Amino acid sequence: MSGPLQTQDRHSRSRLFPGIGPEGQEKIRRSSIAIVGVGAVGAAAAEMAVRAGVGRLTLIDRDVVELSNLSRQFLFDERDAEEVAPKAEAAARRLKAIDGGADVRGVVADLDHTNALSLLRDHDVIFDASDNFETRLLASDAARSLGVLSVYAACVGDEGLVAVTRPESPCLRCYLEVLPPAGSGPTCDTAGVVPTLPPTIAGIAMTEGLKAVSGARVSGGVLSLHAWDGAWRSRRLFESASPSPRCPVCADGRYPALEGEGASEVVKLCGRSAVQVAPAARERPDLAALERRLLRVGPVRRSEHLLSAEVENVSLTVFADGRCVVRGTGDPLRARTLYERYIGR
Ligand SMILES: [Zn+2]
């Protein structure tokens, strides 16, 4: 930045707000936040963080920009979609144009147990805007192991969820202990999403992140919001949750996701344009529930032992033991992305 802009005070309104003030703004400038997943929530959160003056931001995403992202994902445009630009790089480019003084790093990678600690260490907040359960647990375990605040934000349909866990409070695993079986939970790619919801949820979640780095007390717990019926129902869930005696992190001091426990096995099948995604948990999926969800996006056939669906020019075959074979691509990253989009957990 040069010329007259340099002498103006970009963050004067934040300094005027007593909750932040000049000291808080200086702390925000010196802070660093890692954002995992640059989809609708992650991109909006990243833009808010950079505009608010966060000094260093790391964006981690394995995916590329597609036309269907543009209806709700900030930071991306038609050129990014035409160029099939990696989201982490396209987002970093745009953020540097918003604030040339911000240190923004885009990392095109699939966060996994081999790279999580090295990518996430040296940040004050780990902001998880990922789209899948595996990465969620990995980000949470990494935040615990590094002793930093983790903020999780997600949206499906008209529901948004924000979870904030401090190093000393129960971890995300404790909150997520009771979960529906595999294949029964909606994803944005089967249930859709209210397009204005992701930035709303990103704003709530990033507010907690900014509170943390500016030295204010953050609200812990899980917040769930419903957006569409005109009556905004908000619930603070598990507000007084205590650590689960079954949680490997809180009860035993282990970080299973950092050891690769719970990681899917993604294998390219020999000589064919097909990849097998085998979730580690191998819960038996509810094929009937999965069929109902997938019928909304493409043709589905189901038998007692398997289900096969056609989406995005590939076929997904889900077996009763939880394995999924993605035919029509030989790219393991793409196969995993499609699995998370349509099968998920
Ligand atoms: Zn826990």
Tell me what the structure shows.
The chain has 345 residues and is of the alpha/beta class. The protein has two domains: 3-259, NAD(P)-binding Rossmann-like Domain (Rossmann fold); 265-342, TATA-Binding Protein, CATH 3.30.310. It has twelve helices and 14 strands. It has helices spanning 12-16, 21-29, 40-52, 78-82, 87-98, 116-120, 133-146, 172-175, 188-191, 197-214, 287-294, 332-342, and strands spanning 32-36, 56-61, 103-108, 125-128, 149-156, 159-165, 221-226, 233-237, 265-268, 274-278, 300-302, 306-311, 314-319, 324-327. The strands form two sheets. An eight-stranded mixed sheet has the order 3-2-1-4-5-6-7-8, with helices on both faces. Strands 9-10-14-13-12-11 form a six-stranded antiparallel sheet, covered by helices on one side. Mean pLDDT is 89; it is low at 178-182. Zinc ion binds at residues 170-171, 173-174, 243-244, 247, 249-250.
User: Which H/E pattern describes the elements?
Assistant: HHEHEHHEHEHEEHHHEEEEHEEEEH
By secondary-structure content and strand pairing, the structural class works out as alpha/beta
Largest sheet: 8 strands, mixed
Number of strands: 14
The helix count comes to 12
The CATH architecture of the largest domain can be named as 3-Layer(aba) Sandwich
The proportion of residues in beta strands is: 15-25%
Overall CATH class of the largest domain? Alpha Beta
CATH fold naming of the largest domain = Rossmann fold
